[in-house]
């Protein structure tokens, strides 16, 4: 991953919530088959920074909604060859080591980027493509559970506040449970460190420069980690806009002030 394409903490704090808000804002116009779930993974890949969408069903096409170097919206489709065993770029699947021919399959990827004039158009295109990929019927409303991603937004904001005077880049490799391995932090002046989610439920921030060290720890925001970011069931639950959590809290604060 080239150094210049890693987003800075300040950039990640702004772009990731924006992408989810755009996806959530148009979700009510689309429907998907019952049982489909979609997770979001932050990723920087080949000049694109955004979210890769990981459905819980087998597919050979994986979508990424993100921004290019000029912060313009792009929807990327990665079409893996038919022998590719999984969307996950790992050496094992379900504990089984992949065979040489399966590993070689990752080299056979067809990548397509489509640029859009604005974010709502790009987000709508993502849902439309998912609907095309999973065309089962009957179809139901899409429900958004944003608490987990929103808590990570807060984590990035806390890390940014603890690194006063620095705005390091952060590396997103786009692998499941990446937080437990640690996000790499770097800056152009030689500062380096990582941001790690420990099994104890605490975030640890480590940062080293020529001037010294910063070691900080804080409790992770609790949330229901079992719910996928987007899911579909046979109920008529109205999908919730990701920013509705914030709006709801602001309304409560407004009533308290009165």
Structure explained in plain terms:
- Helices cover 28% and strands 31% of the residues.
- With 258 residues, the protein is α+β, with helices and mostly antiparallel strands.
- It has a 7-stranded antiparallel sheet, with helices on one face.
- The longest helix is centred in the first third of the chain and has 18 residues, at 9-26.
- The termini are far apart.
Feature tags:
258 residues; 5-stranded antiparallel sheet; 16 strands; globular; disordered C terminus
Unreliable segments (pLDDT under 50, ≥5 consecutive)?
Answer: 82-95, 237-258
Tell me the Rg in angstroms. 19 Å
Number of strands: 16
Backbone structural class:
alpha+beta
Please give the share of residues in helix: 25-40%
- Order of strands, main sheet, comes to 8-5-4-3-2-16-10
Q: Could you describe the largest sheet, including whether it forms a barrel?
A: 7 strands, antiparallel
Number of helices: 6
The proportion of residues in beta strands is: 25-35%
Mean pLDDT: 84
Give the termini distance in whole angstroms.
Answer: 51 Å
H/E order of the elements?
HEEEEEEEHEHEEHEHEEEEEH
Shape, please? Answer: globular
Task: Give the arrangement of secondary structure elements.
Elements: H1 9-26, E1 31-33, E2 37-45, E3 48-55, E4 61-67, E5 73-80, E6 92-93, E7 96-97, H2 100-104, E8 109-115, H3 119-133, E9 139-141, E10 143-144, H4 147-162, E11 169-170, H5 178-181, E12 183-186, E13 192-197, E14 202-209, E15 212-219, E16 230-231, H6 244-257
């Amino acid at each position: 991953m080239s150094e210049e394409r890693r987003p800075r903490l300040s950039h990640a704090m702004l772009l990731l919530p924006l992408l989810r808000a755009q996806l959530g804002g148009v979700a009510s116009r689309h429907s998907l088959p019952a049982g489909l779930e979609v997770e979001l993974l932050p990723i920087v890949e080949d000049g694109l920074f955004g979210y890769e969408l990981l459905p819980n069903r087998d597919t050979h096409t994986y979508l990424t909604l993100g921004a290019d170097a000029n912060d313009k919206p792009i929807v990327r489709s990665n079409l893996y060859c038919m022998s590719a065993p999984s969307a996950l770029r790992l050496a094992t699947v379900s504990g089984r080591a992949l065979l040489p021919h399966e590993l070689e399959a990752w080299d056979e990827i067809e990548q397509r980027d489509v640029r859009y004039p604005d974010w709502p158009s790009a987000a709508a295109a993502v849902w439309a493509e998912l609907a095309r990929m999973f065309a089962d019927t009957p179809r139901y409303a899409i429900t958004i559970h944003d608490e987990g991603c929103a808590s990570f937004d807060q984590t990035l904001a806390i890390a940014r506040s603890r690194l006063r005077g620095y705005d390091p880049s952060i590396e997103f490799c786009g692998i499941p449970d990446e937080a437990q391995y640690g996000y790499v932090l770097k800056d152009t002046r030689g500062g380096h460190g990582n941001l790690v989610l420990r099994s104890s439920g605490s975030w640890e921030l480590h940062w080293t420069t020529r001037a010294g060290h910063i070691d900080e720890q804080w409790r992770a925001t609790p949330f229901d980690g079992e719910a996928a970011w987007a899911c579909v069931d046979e109920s008529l639950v109205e999908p919730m806009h990701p920013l509705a959590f914030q709006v709801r809290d602001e309304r409560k604060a407004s009533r308290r002030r009165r």
